[in-house]
Amino acid sequence: MLLNYITYYLIKVQTMIEESRSKRTVFGRTFAFLFVFLAWITNSVLRLCFAYMSVTGVQLLDIQVSQLTIQILNLSFVSLGVVGLLVSVGLWLGKRWGLIGAAVVSVATIIFDIWGMTLQFTAALGFIVPALVLGYIMVARTRLTIPIERFGSKTLEPIGGA
């Protein structure tokens, strides 16, 4: 029984490796990875732009809020934007910390946007990219955590799927 399970597992992993290698790629990355990566970069840059606009006096909210709330919004926008850009470097390089960081920042962004929906309903748009990133991580996680060295190579399967 154990031998059957191990054989099934090895065949499944080998199939996943072959499928990831047969996909169309650009720069050694799959189109799904590139889409998620570019969406992540765009999300981070937009958060930095929102912080900049708020500091320069552009009214982002439909309602009046206290100065403390505006400062919390700005700090959150800057933090999520900067950390998101740093994590994107780890994602592109195929580092495990980039993947873990993307998951953590996605969860933090979703929590921030839930709070933001109490101020303005359009904050719900902020759920789109973190949900895409978390979905991609959930789909790709088995491929990302299985060392290929068991099958002859001494490297890990790259995050982008080469």
Task: Please provide a written account of the structure.
This protein has 162 residues and is an all-alpha fold. The chain contains five helices and two strands; from the N terminus they run H-E-E-H-H-H-H. The chain has helices at residues 2-22, 31-55, 67-93, 96-117, 128-145, and strands spanning 25-26, 29-30. A two-stranded antiparallel sheet has the order 1-2. A hairpin with a 2-residue loop joins strand 1 and strand 2 (29-30). The longest helix has 27 residues, at 67-93. The radius of gyration is 20 Å and the shape is elongated.
Q: Characteristics of this structure?
A:
162 residues; mainly alpha; two-stranded antiparallel ribbon; 5 helices; 2 strands
Produce a short descriptive summary:
With 162 residues, the protein is mainly α. Helix content is 70%, strand content 2%.
Largest sheet properties: 2 strands, antiparallel
- Amount of beta strand: under 5%
Structural class: mainly alpha
Q: How large is the count of helical segments?
A: 5
The overall number of domains is 1
Rg of Cα set: 20 Å
Summarize model confidence as the mean pLDDT: 76
**H/E series:** HEEHHHH
Residue windows where pLDDT falls under 50 for at least 5 positions: 145-156
* DSSP, total strands: 2
Strand order of the largest sheet: 1-2
Give the termini distance in whole angstroms: 33 Å
Mass-distribution shape: elongated
Amount of helix: 55-70%
